[in-house]
Amino acid sequence: MSKINEMNHNINSLYILKEILSFVKTKPKLYIIIYNKHLQKSIGVDIEYYKKQSGKYKIGAKKGKGKEYILNTNKLIFEGEYLNGRRHGILNEFNQNKNLIFKGEYLNGERNGKGKEFHNNGKLKFEGEYLNRERNGKGKEFNDKGTLIFEGDYLNGKRNGKGKDYEDGELIFEGEYLNGERNGKGKEYYYMNGKLKFEGEYLNGQRNGKGKEYHYNNKLIFEGTFFKGNRNGKGKEYYYNNGKLKYEGEFLNGKRNGKGKEYNDNDELIFEGEYLNVERWNKE
Predict the structure, then answer these.
(1) 253-275 burial string, b = 16+ CB within 10 Å, else e?
(2) What is the band of 282 on the pLDDT scale with cuts at 50, 70, 90?
(3) What SS3 class is residue 28?
(4) Which helix (H) or strand (E) element contains residue 128?
(5) Does the pLDDT at position 74 exceed 80?
(6) Which of 272, 232, 277, 273 is nearest to 256 (CA)?
(7) Are 180 and 159 within 8 A, CB to CB?
(8) Where does the pLDDT of residue 103 fall: very low under 50, low under 70, confident under 90, or very high at 90 and above?
(9) What is the pTM for the complete model shown?
(10) Residue 117, Cβ density class (10 Å: 0-12 exposed, 13-18 middle, ≥19 buried)
(11) Distance (Å, whole) CA 217 – CA 121
């Protein structure tokens, strides 16, 4: 065993492991490793980790630098530091195509601290803070072209707290999130010109509660209540060119429905009565 112990210092790849056990076939190799505790210790194979990860094994010391591969392949999935047999410190993770998918800090076997995730094409996917492997704290998301699409707070892997959405680098929303969805107060902006489009309340990603809509010339065009993204309940519409009152009354599913009053741009009342799907119901 002294020879194996001496070789243990130089083991850093699956190829070396195969050479050591080349006198047996694949399955006996695994059985020998599983049932021979002394051999496990000698060559630095963590069987408990293998059982948990299903098909993965680790080569390296319980403390210091090491590497992990997919069982019976030469595909590297991890390289970095260990402490007490667990990933600990700065490391790199790879997918089966040998692409870097994560680079950052680990603590007690999990992502903890600052880190970066990458798309398969190598572009940055996420950078920020982690706790117990999940995104927790401040972070930024990017599309596969490397363009920023979100920045804000995370909790248990989901957007939670204050955040901002972007499209092609342009700010299109800022506000509050809960469990990955827009929840609470927020503001939407027109793409390209950046002017305010909507401000109000959200629930489960949709406009819900009180809110105001604006024309792209920055004039107020509606204020009232919303339900599941649509105008619902009482509200007021305004002329986009001069801001004068155009309609006040009830809405349902985004349309005038129920009692209401309509005005021309000279502030003159031109209709008062019932509406159904936008149309005047009791025409005279």
Answers:
(1) eeebbeebebbeeeeeeeeeebb
(2) low
(3) helix
(4) strand 124-131
(5) no
(6) 277
(7) yes
(8) very high
(9) 0.74
(10) buried
(11) 40
